[in-house]
Amino acid sequence: MTVKQLSLPELARACARSGVTGVGLWREPVQAYGIAAAARLMREEGLRVTSLCRGGFLTATAPAERRRAIDDNRVAIEEAAALGTDTLVLVSGGLPEGSRDLPGARERVADALAELAPYARERGVRLAIEPLHPMYAADRCVVSTLGQALELAERFPAEQVGVVVDTYHLWWDDRVPELIARAGAATGADGTLPGGRIVVFQVADWITPLPAGVLLGRGQLGDGAVDLRAFRARVDAAGYAGPVEVELFNEGLWARDGGDVLAETVERYVRHVLG
Amino acid sequence: MTVKQLSLPELARACARSGVTGVGLWREPVQAYGIAAAARLMREEGLRVTSLCRGGFLTATAPAERRRAIDDNRVAIEEAAALGTDTLVLVSGGLPEGSRDLPGARERVADALAELAPYARERGVRLAIEPLHPMYAADRCVVSTLGQALELAERFPAEQVGVVVDTYHLWWDDRVPELIARAGAATGADGTLPGGRIVVFQVADWITPLPAGVLLGRGQLGDGAVDLRAFRARVDAAGYAGPVEVELFNEGLWARDGGDVLAETVERYVRHVLG
In chain A, N or C: fewer CB atoms in 10 Å? Predict the structure, then answer.
């Protein structure tokens, strides 16, 4: 999504050229290109698919709508498996129209996970609950903190359900250091699971003022208020050794040449996340 | 601020007409009108000044800027006392330009409180730390949760420093019920303090999409996602018996007739907060 102006083949070639070895994909462009063809393309360019975004939207109360959401998540799990990634990112969904019942909506997410997690596990896919910033709690994601995401994930085996740590959504929360440590300390059935429940680590910076709708204002790494390096160090210390995804939704970046944005992002990543 | 299109005399008369018995005032219009004149006006219309908004902005690192902020807060405390209110609301301030150190900024707020709280207490004014929604953490208020506000307040006697509970800022947080109970359980030096550390209870609804800048999108009571009645019941159960302030920053409401907005707000309040 950081360079969504690029087609999948352009993206794969630009990643290979920039020394990027893995890429998180989104369902819509992959479906449009064809799942098998996308899997082949990434393989041929030597790119690992780090995650598929996104399943979820599991908060509906109407039975038919709820069933459709569960079915669509099964398809997403199959797509992830076909792409060769072990990670499906879940965005929980917001409040149903007219509802004010956040705890109830969160429980419906838990119920849906109980249906989906074993199905995913059989296909080698782990579900990653992504807490989104509290400003999205009403209309997009009722899971707003790493604490809430962990409480949901911890109802299931660590091999089945984990969490996304995304700096954009979590940077303001003083409980995050202790929660990252708790997530990292989880172990699998065999006593080990590197990184515990941290399935994906995503980075973006926080810049203001926020644009209308607050969706497309994520900052390029280093442009904002987030101490990205400290976040990365915490995730490292928790035992996480998986991919780091840069996920910037930003209309300014999308209006530029995708190759240039990718090169700039790699440079910023080295300077502000690794450095 | 809900009806900022009204002058102070218009506001006082409209409140009296609508059965509103108290009003939270903001510093700028009060200063423009004159502190003593505003105090007299409210008294003559039988209105209690429930709080003065706002002091704070205590996160600067530059010594001169920091000193100016402390001095300005002393003036705000004196203004509150002159208006006859026992409550000064504090908005902490955001990160200094270029800083990424949230914990450091929060500590500077604590240091400033240590200077200001005894000064306020001598003048019969309690400082009320207002946690603002996490979407304001970078540019407006580094205190983002009721938990953080309480941890700051609890370093001082409950008669000196408390917290604001504002539904708009806190509605998404699943820890709030337990935190309201904790805030309410605080006692003063003589063993009693009704409502404990809850100094003010403010209500506004959460509506989407958020406008650019995310400042002026607060929803009229009942229009959004917040279970206002449940919030009010929790604050009641915590022993709070003080004023309930409706604080809506909303350009749509400001464009309408102020008297109409006030009447509508009273009706909504009865239906969605009291009811």
Answer: C
